[in-house]
Amino acid sequence: MQSEPILRVIRAYEDWIVRTYCWVRFWILRQRFLDEIGQYLPERGTILDLGSGFGLFSLYYAQILPDARFRGVDLSRRRVEMAKRAAVRLGLANVTYEVGDATAWRADDEYAAAYMLDIVHHIDEECVRPLVEQLRKALRPGGRLIVKDVDTRPSYKRWFTYLLDRLMAPRGVIRYWSADELQRLLEEVGFQVHRHLMVDSLPYPHVLYICQREE
Q1: SS3 assignment, position 140
Q2: What is the pLDDT of residues 31-76, one digit of tens each?
Q3: Considering just the CA atoms, what is the radius of gyration of the chain in Å?
Q4: Are 101 and 111 in contact (CB under 8 A)?
Q5: Which of 21, 47, 154, 163 is buried most deeply by CB count within 10 Å?
Q6: Domain boundaries 4-212, CATH class
Q7: How far is residue 179's CA from residue 188's CA, in Å, rounded to a whole number?
Q8: How far apart are the C-alpha atoms of 105 and 120, rounded to whole Å?
């Protein structure tokens, strides 16, 4: 892993366990995928990172897009505090973090874009549609919601993903959506959706959904 912004993010954490987690997450969503997702983020405006965790991806993109403002929201106070400290160590003034539950999140501002990376399958099924409706409401006209999640097919990739998810969250919610099912929900809420696979050498069924709110 050679990307300097990625290495700076990893070094910003003091806890070696979190650093190890960072290596794993950036190993799964490495430079090629970060570039693929990042091309859909605006250079300016406020961008919401929902389910921001330790802040890995918002800290990375805050370096790449210095004129944008990133707002991370996560359920874990510990992760939020660690993300805040990492932002200070990196000298980033364009990213903030706060504690919040994605399932209870409500549109509270206007955003140029928002993203959820591997979050949907950790949310109770009945909470996904209300959340997506709130995200659409919060986006300015023309704004994008970027969703990266995993497909249910092929089954061997789903089981590989399930084992990793259970390792990271032994008691957490895991509800995988088929690509057709999740795209249909996003379109029913009112997004124009472009979907494509993110081909990987790992047995990991990445799917990227670029959801546009109409002008």
Answers
A1: strand
A2: 989 999 999 999 999 999 999 999 999 999 999 999 999 999 999 9
A3: 16
A4: no
A5: 47
A6: alpha beta
A7: 14
A8: 14
